[in-house]
Specification:
Length: 201
């Protein structure tokens, strides 16, 4: 065995030992102990925001709320909306794709008016490239069944996520829900809660 080979082996051993020492050294965790998802900072790779806009009413009595998205530079391949609402005040009629994905494929469209939940998922399309920029990802139509003057809400749940071709983690940074007043003539905003999903959700 040549002298050069021996030196290389020794150098590799030193590097290996150093890496093991770093890996096994005790580290101070940066993960907050608070289990409230909304209080956790968004991961550095998450740039996408979603928002449920103020509902618009029509003469038919069916309101619609647009779910808007801004990718923040992320290449979006799919979106999953996990929503909740007060079943005594609202009744969801339908959820349909917006124009953000040119030719989306719906994977899930489950409306549960008994428990007040919606699960809706769509992707850019089989074999389709993802999308970037801002746009409308979905439209929610619903009826108001509560009393006039009551405050109603459509809320994002922590399992909502946005997938990207650039990472296997959700790139959803924040998701802003909507609250509004039930009225026969107009819909007004209240302060909507903002959700910051935890990494990996």
């Amino acid at each position: 065995m040549s002298k050069r080979t021996i030196i290389l082996i020794i150098a590799l051993l030193i590097v290996t030992v150093g890496l093991l020492a770093i890996a096994l050294a005790p580290k101070k965790s940066n993960v907050p102990k608070d289990t409230d998802v909304a209080s956790r900072p968004a991961p550095s790779y998450a740039h996408t925001t979603m928002k449920i806009n103020t509902p618009a009413k029509s003469a038919s009595g069916v309101s619609s709320a647009i779910v808007s998205i801004d990718s923040g530079g992320d290449n979006i391949s799919g979106v999953q909306l996990e929503l909740s609402f007060d079943k005594t005040k609202l009744q969801i009629v339908d959820v349909v794709p917006g124009a953000f994905f040119p030719a989306p494929t719906e994977l899930i469209n489950k409306i549960d008016n008994v428990n007040g939940t919606v699960s809706y998922a769509l992707i850019a399309g089989i074999g389709k490239a993802g999308a970037k920029g801002a746009g409308e990802v979905a439209t929610i139509t619903f009826r108001e069944i509560g009393k006039a003057g009551e405050i109603a809400a459509i809320n994002f749940e922590p399992k909502s996520l946005v997938t990207s071709s650039e990472t296997d983690q959700s790139v959803l940074k924040t998701a802003t829900s909507t609250t509004f007043t039930i009225s026969s003539s107009q819909t007004t905003n209240s302060a909507p809660p903002v959700l910051s999903p935890a990494a990996g959700q």
